[in-house]
Amino acid sequence: MNVIHNKQKNTNNNRKVKSKTDEAAKSQVIHQQTQANHQIQQKHNPPKRVKRFKYFTNVLYLLLFVICVFILVGNLSGLFGGKAGYKLVGFSFMENSKFGYMDKSGKVIIPAIYDERIYSFSDSLAVVCLNGKYGFVDKNGTQKIKITYDSARAFSEGLSAVLSNGRYGYINTKGDFVISPQFDDAYNFSGGLAAVKTGGYWGYIDKKGSIRINPQYETVSNFFDGVAAVYKNGFWGLIDKNGKLIADIQYSEISKSFQNSLLLAKKDGLYGFINKKGKTVIPFSYTNAGDFSENLAKVFKDGMSGYGYIDGKNNLKIKTSCSDGSNFSEGLVFVLNSDTNGNGLYSVIDKTGKTVISAQFSNYRNFKGGIAPVSVGDKWGVIDKKGRYIINPQYYAISDFESNLAIVRLADKVGVIDKKGNIVVDIKYDNNDSQNYYGLSMVLEQVVK
Fold first, then answer.
1. For the chain, which residues make up each domain, given as ranges?
2. Is residue 232 within 8 Å of residue 216, measured between CB atoms?
3. What is the per-residue pLDDT across 335-370, written as a single tens digit (0 to 9) for each?
4. HEC string of the chain?
5. CA distance 330 to 285
6. Rounded to whole angstroms, how far apart are CA atoms 92 and 288?
7. What span, in angstroms and rounded, lies between the C-alpha atoms of 130 and 115?
8. How many CB atoms lie within 10 A of CB 110?
9. b/e map 242-271, b = 16+ CB within 10 Å
């Protein structure tokens, strides 16, 4: 999802993505959520799920925040272009309802003077907001592009979409308009094309501002590996960079995880998988399914005792009696073992279906770098792949680790720890401000591969 900053104040305290209009926020297509492993939201009930506990409310705030950060600054390959990655460079912090930036060691580089948090650096520049206007600073805090715009998106492929006098155009890293303001809305460039909205519909332009695909769609995604998803009359399809339909507009849902060779889609109430040429590879026969990860996808349909995992040829490789499961990460997956009342705990299985860590966790985050945050009751700790605690359960929440660092919450304060549990940034920043933003958030930098 493209990062968009704008003047409009958000009256919904639970909403973390600020957009110029509600329509723009709804139309913006997210390229798969990192922690959610790019799963399509499901509308069918699988086998009975675990009951949610009240103490998860506090945990959920941090989980949603971290997901939001990765959505806002990534899936970065979608945000910055098809061949980009990211790295952690520091943290945005809040003091007295203002935001600044510190490096990974906790050294303050940009004092807390801005009205909105700093999300990411791309082309060595970050969007900042002051008094309702937007501009760009470098990692030293030096203002590189004047704070004059009503909205601004992160740079991608050398250009940024900015809002000026009610219309979006594109500027270069010097702040000069390359494409004059003329669009109702605009996304970042990806693969040489950018989605723009005009006359109520979305199409695509090139870097000269020429229309390449006529505006005709209600919602679109960015291009990734030459493919984009488009939405029209209640259904999704796929197009190539010439605007040619490669998958007919007939799916009620379609995955935007274009890095996968097979895309999860929903048709006539059932899930199946198509390739990026629009051909059905796995029939539409599942009532619930997730995207492929490490060559396996979670599926469920009537007649199955629980979720299973299939390969790209629709062979059932893992059969379980579990009522939920994550996507695979580093060869392991968390699965939910529920009783008849819907209460349950998560265990960990490998790709053979063997249980490697017994059921004992109330919640989890997927393995990354050999470790995974997990909760026991309402406290979070960190385990290794053998289930041994690296950090004992003690925190109200722990984010994913990035560059061996994670944000943690203790009582109503947040800070940063390393993967050994050492405190890197003091746990002193307020848990949230008036709009439920956390006092710390990861700041990532574009790395073009």
1. 4-448
2. yes
3. 999 877 778 999 999 999 999 999 999 999 999 999
4. CCCEEECCCCCCCCCCCCCCCHHHHHHECCCCCCCCCCCCCCCCCCCCCCCCCCCHHHHHHHHHHHHHHHHHHCCHHHHHCCCEEEEEEEEEEEECCEEEEEECCCCEEEEEEECCCCCEEECCEEEEEECCEEEEECCCCCEEEEEEECEEECCECCEEEEEECCEEEEECCCCCEEEEEEECEEEEEECCEEEEEECCEEEEECCCCCEEEEEEECEECCCECCEEEEEECCEEEEECCCCCEEEEEEECEECCCCCCCEEEEEECCEEEEEECCCCEEEEEEECEEEEEECCEEEEECCCCCCCEEECCCCCEEEECCCCEECCCECCEEEEEEECCCCCEEEEEEECCCCEEEEEEECEECCCECCEEEEEECCEEEEEECCCCEEEEEEECEECCCECCEEEEEECCEEEEEECCCCEEEEEEEECCCCCCCCCEEEEEEEEEC
5. 28
6. 37
7. 5
8. 22
9. ebeebbebebeebbbbbbbebbbbbbeebb
Query: Which residue bears the tokens 């994550």?
Result: 326
Q: What is the pLDDT of residues 269-317, one digit of tens each?
A: 999 999 999 999 999 999 999 999 999 999 999 999 999 999 999 999 9
Encoding tokens for residue 182? Answer: 């003329």
Residue bearing tokens 């998860």: 56
Beta bridge partners of residue 406, listed in sequence order: 417
State the number of CA atoms in the 13 A half-sphere of 116 facing the CB: 28
Query: Model pTM greater than 0.85?
Result: no
Q: Which residues pair with 407 in a beta bridge?
A: 416
Q: How far apart are CA 220 and CA 228, in angstroms?
A: 7
Q: Is 400 exposed, middle or buried (0-12, 13-18, 19+ CB in 10 A)?
A: buried
Answer for the pair 323, 338: CB distance below 8 angstroms, yes or no. Answer: yes
Provide the CA 415 distance to its chain's centre, in angstroms: 22
Phi, psi for residue 32 in degrees, rounded to 5: 60, 125
